[in-house]
Amino acid sequence: MIYIIASHSNRLEYVCRQIFNRWLNVEFEICQQNDFKADANDAVINYSNSITDNALNIAPCGLLHQQGITDVSPEWKEEHLFPTECELGFDIFSAVFYLISRYEEYGEKATDKHGRYKQENSTLFKQGLLQTPVVDKWIEEFRLLINDKFRIGIPKQTPTNLTTVDVDNVYAFRNKGIVRHAISSVKDLIKGNRQDVLKRWKSLLHVENDPFFNIEEVSQRLADENPDNVIFFHCGCYGKFDKKTILPSFRYWKAKQKIDKQIVVGLHISYRAATNDTALKLEKWILEKCLGRAVSKCRFHYLKFALPYGYERLEEFGFTDDYSMAYSDMAGYRAGTSKPFTFYNIEKEKETKLTVHPLIVMDKTLRSNMKLSVDAAYEYIDNLKKESNATGGDFTTLFHNENVADLNGWGEWGERFFKR
């Protein structure tokens, strides 16, 4: 048991639950100074501006006893946020809260063309720490200090490494309408891409398998690696940013039912449904009808969500776990951590039941946005994973089924990334 001497607040209660209960697997109790009498062997953290003998003293910066969003200017000292004069050297509770609550994203109007928060606006990007799991490093530093000061043995958390898959395009060619194929074939012939035309029509005539319909093979490999790996199915309508098939596919329907018995299945919320309640309700219903069960896990297509609106809607529609916490244009730690945490709604000053699973790296980010070669990407992923696991942090990756196929220039990319 860890006793924390502090004035109570919802924010402090929330961040302590993440740090102690979820990440360090230890119980805690927040006590008022006047009501607490410590025994000699108690592990006591004094979170106040006064000094308590035989306790770990942490001076608060004030963020956890405020209400709503105020004009906070994040101050850094080396890799520590909100430095204060205390034994630890910074206000770890406020620092963790600021990053995992995504405090800085509330009310942000300088978004990209998809309405997403830009990574260059974040304090971690500005400090050059976006590729560093700073929260995980702080927690490990905190754990070691508590163990040393109070002679207790809180163990380091065992990391979990997850591979997740987004199925945006289940077919490269089939079930997309004859008009689209005719137009695409003419374009390919004009560009001199005769091989692509042959692949298209061989697939349509069932001479060859459609190169993107590899989801059964992909899911089997994921199941062999870890049955907790997750695959997200797009169930929305066709649109500019939603490349799902126009025509329904019975084979795809049956494949989803089979895959649901092998690994975890969630909904890949379409671009349109990210801001359209009717579309979201329909997509969730379609997948649940197919699987014959409630669907509680999801990821936004294009990682298109804004806080707190995006996560409020997920709770409203019955989702319990989201895997969208990442930037599309750059790999790294959007919330400063690789560990799951529950979402705190600052507008309502309330912890929610939605668990956020940070995503660290995505295949398209490495190739299309960061312009890395296959070898450089392989090394980049390996280094991120080692650093994350060293602190007991998790490591979650994302690839797309279409990029396993040797099409559109992915080739070796898909295979090497998939094997991560």
What does this structure look like?
This protein has helices spanning about 10-25, 90-100, 125, 135-150, 180-190, 195-205, 215-225, 250-260, 275-290, 310-315, 365-370, 375-390, 410-420, and strands spanning about 1-5, 30, 45, 55-60, 75, 80, 160-165, 230-235, 265-270, 295-300, 320, 340-345, 350-355, 360, 395-400. It has about 425 residues and is of the alpha/beta class. It is about 35% helix and about 15% strand. It has three domains: about 1-150, no CATH class; about 160-170 and about 210-420, TIM Barrel (Alpha-Beta Barrel), CATH 3.20.20.370; about 175-210. The chain has 13 helices and 15 strands. Helix 8 links the parallel strand 8 and strand 9 (about 265-270).
Keywords:
13 helices, alpha/beta, nine-stranded mixed β-sheet, TIM Barrel, 420 residues, four-stranded parallel β-sheet, 15% strand, single chain, 3 domains, 15 strands
Instruction: Classify the oligomer.
Output: single chain
* Gross CATH architecture of the largest domain: Alpha-Beta Barrel
Using the coordinates above, name the CATH class of the largest domain.
Alpha Beta
- In CATH terms, the superfamily of the largest domain is Glycoside hydrolase/deacetylase
